[in-house]
Amino acid sequence: MKSSQTLTNWQVKRTQLGLSVIALLGFIILLISVLTGKPWLTSFDQSLINFFRGATFQDFRGFLTFVTLSGNPVPVGIFTFILAIISSFLKNYKFAAFLLINVLSFGGLANSLIKNAVQRPRPDQHPLFHLTSYSFPSGHSITAMLLFGSLILMLWHLVKNQTIRVGLVALLAIWIALIGISRIYVGVHYPSDVLAGFLLGFVLLTLSQAFFYGIKWR
Q: In angstroms, rounded to a whole number, what is the distance separating the alpha carbons of residues 91 and 63?
C-alpha cells in the first residue's frame, strides 16, 4: 500500500463536506425544536413510534433487542479496542487513533455534554429497558455512525473487489440503521433522538476524517 495514495484517497471530498453541513443544519433544527417544544416534532415522533412499535415489528423483538444491546458501551468498547489493536498490528496507526478518538472521545463526550445540556426526558410508553439518563440525542446512534462509519471508510478504500466492498459497506449501513430502529422499538428514544444522533455522528465523523486525512478541495 502506498502511503501517499492512501492519504489522498482518505481525504474528505467536497460532496461529503457539503452533506455534513446539511447534517449539521438538520441537527440544529432538531435541537431547537426539542428545546422549544415544536408541535410538529411531537407528531413526527409519535407517528414513527406507532410504526416501529406496532404489530409489524413484534416478530423481531428478540433480534432488535440483540441489536440494541450490541450498541451498549461495553461491547462497543471491546470491539473498538480489538479493531484498534488489529490496525496497529498492521501498522495502520493513524486509523487506530482515528477509530479510538471517534468512538471513545467524540461518541462518549459529545453525547454526554448535549444530553445534560438539553435534559430531554426519555419516552414513557412501556419501554423494554428503564434508563435514568436523558434522551436527546441517541448515544447509540452517534456511536454507531462513528464506529461503523469509520469501518465503512476503511473498507471502501482498502477492499479492492468492488462487489465485496459494496456488499460489506451495505451491511454496515444497514446495521447502523437497525441500531437506530432498535432504540425506538425498545422504547428508550424518540425517533428525533435517533435522527439527531445520526446527523451529529456524521458531522463528527467528517470533522475527524478532515483532521486526520485532510480535505480534497479540488
A: 36
